[in-house]
């Protein structure tokens, strides 16, 4: 599995390096021409675009996201904005509606839509919104999560790919991280996500293979969504679910017609590359090999793990992952420890999804803080631990951390392989997470 992962990482890295060196930008591969007003047609030369902003109790960021989509450079008569508010907090819902009313008075065609239930969560909200009659006037739909603030020229740069290339179903833009330099944790998270965008998605786009929709910062051809049978409420990873179905009916994705069934080879590549190698193999190798097999091997002198499996392959894989964010390359050691701890949760997610366990369709929304930490540091944000004992600690991480500490101590005392040099920091990382020393607690 480590060799499989090495081959996978290397192939994507080679493609991305080729794209970068030869400057194979999407504009050189696909037709792209700026859309302009016509003397006879006027703004009718622009296609009708629908913008959807799903949100749920986004009290701290709703103004930023609504303001950003309302400031998009696109003719106002060719743009419809839907704010899909599933908030359960009535105060937040009222604030969001008033913000929409404010922009509507400025001439923006913005529609506030709320539901009295959360059926299907985000997918359910977007599915119901797509059934409103005026959506039939639109050719494309841009989707932005509440914590995403698109640049004013977002549509100007992305929509032409769809207009001039009828076989493209999705244009996915890259994310920018406004809080990447906030702390060590955000720097590490940026490294992980940059690899996903710069390597995984770029290589998938260039080879016309497959990459998943990120759920935000993307523009879909509505015809592609319809042909792929629309949004499905059967899963909480609705973005990936739709991307897979759209790929299987022949649509291409571009990272920034003539529809036919995909070949058997492309289906195999989708299953192997995206699901098996990246989702199952990657997470299982990271957790079970590095956090279970290697630490437990210290108790069994007859078990010899080859050096290429312990050092060489992991080092190459780590370097290939870290090159996506060269400015943070010196933080690679901390990133490795963070990824190992997170692999525990990713493995659980994989098995929960594959076995369709009880939590498979549970939707938990991460609270976005926006600029609250900077603007209201005393009133709303506190650094005290939660009061309930069972909420105060993460017991699974504590258990793993203690086991790793015992393994490292045994290796230090009785073995000569020096695995403890790696296992001790890994143990400390799990304990830090377990005791809740990562993150900021927000007072209610």
Automatic annotation (TrEMBL):
It catalyses: GDP-mannose + (glucomannan)n = GDP + (glucomannan)n+1. This is glucomannan 4-beta-mannosyltransferase. Belongs to the glycosyltransferase 2 family. Plant cellulose synthase-like A subfamily. Signal peptide: none annotated. Keywords: Cell wall biogenesis/degradation, Glycosyltransferase, Golgi apparatus, Membrane, Transferase, Transmembrane, Transmembrane helix. It is a multi-pass membrane protein. It comes from Vanilla planifolia (Vanilla). Pfam families: Glycos_transf_2. The keyword Hydrolase does not apply. The chain crosses the membrane at residues 280-300, 312-338, 393-413, 419-442. PANTHER family: GLUCOMANNAN 4-BETA-MANNOSYLTRANSFERASE 3-RELATED (PTHR32044:SF21), GLUCOMANNAN 4-BETA-MANNOSYLTRANSFERASE 9 (PTHR32044). It is found in: Golgi apparatus membrane. Residues 53-185 form the Glycosyltransferase 2-like domain. It comes from the Eukaryota. One of its GO terms (cellular component) is Golgi membrane. GO terms for biological process: cell wall organization. One of its GO terms (molecular function) is mannan synthase activity.
């Amino acid at each position: 599995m480590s060799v499989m992962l090495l081959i996978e990482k290397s192939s994507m890295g080679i493609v991305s390096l080729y794209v970068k060196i030869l400057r194979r930008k999407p504009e050189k591969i696909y037709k792209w021409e700026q859309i302009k007003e016509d003397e006879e047609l006027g703004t009718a030369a622009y296609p009708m675009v629908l913008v959807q902003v799903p949100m749920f109790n986004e009290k701290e960021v709703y103004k930023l996201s609504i303001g950003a989509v309302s400031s998009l450079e696109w003719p106002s008569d060719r743009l419809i904005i839907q704010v899909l508010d599933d908030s359960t907090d009535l105060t937040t819902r009222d604030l969001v509606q008033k913000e929409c009313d404010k922009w509507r008075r400025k001439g923006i065609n913005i529609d506030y839509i709320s539901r009295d239930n959360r059926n299907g969560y985000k997918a359910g909200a977007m599915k119901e919104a797509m059934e409103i009659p005026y959506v039939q006037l639109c050719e494309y739909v841009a989707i932005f999560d509440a914590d995403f603030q698109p640049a004013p020229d977002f549509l100007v740069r992305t929509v032409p790919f769809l207009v001039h290339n009828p076989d493209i179903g999705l244009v996915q833009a890259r994310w920018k991280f406004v809080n990447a330099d906030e702390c060590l944790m955000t720097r590490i998270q940026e490294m992980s996500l940059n690899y996903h965008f710069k390597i995984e998605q770029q290589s998938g786009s260039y080879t016309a293979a497959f990459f998943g929709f990120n759920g935000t910062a993307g523009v879909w051809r509505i015809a592609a969504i319809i042909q792929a049978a629309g949004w499905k409420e059967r899963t909480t990873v609705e973005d990936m679910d739709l991307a897979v179905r759209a790929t299987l009916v022949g649509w291409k994705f571009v990272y920034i017609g003539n529809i036919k069934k995909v070949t058997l080879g492309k289906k195999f590549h989708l299953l192997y590359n995206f699901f098996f190698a990246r989702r199952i193999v990657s997470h299982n190798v990271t957790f079970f090999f590095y956090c279970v097999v290697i630490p437990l091997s210290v108790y069994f002198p007859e078990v010899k793990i080859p050096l290429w499996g312990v050092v060489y392959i992991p080092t190459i894989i780590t370097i290939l992952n870290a090159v996506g964010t060269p400015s943070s390359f010196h933080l690679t050691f901390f990133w490795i420890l963070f990824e190992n701890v997170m692999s525990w949760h990713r493995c659980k997610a994989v098995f929960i999804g594959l076995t369709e366990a009880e939590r498979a369709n549970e939707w938990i929304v991460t609270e976005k803080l926006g600029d609250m930490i900077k603007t209201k540091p005393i009133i709303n944000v506190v650094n005290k631990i939660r009061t309930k004992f069972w909420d105060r600690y993460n017991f699974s991480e504590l258990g793993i951390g203690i086991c790793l500490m015992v393994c490292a101590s045994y290796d230090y005392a009785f073995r000569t392989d020096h695995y403890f040099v790696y296992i001790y920091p890994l143990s400390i990382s799990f304990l830090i997470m377990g005791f809740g020393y990562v993150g900021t607690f927000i007072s209610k």
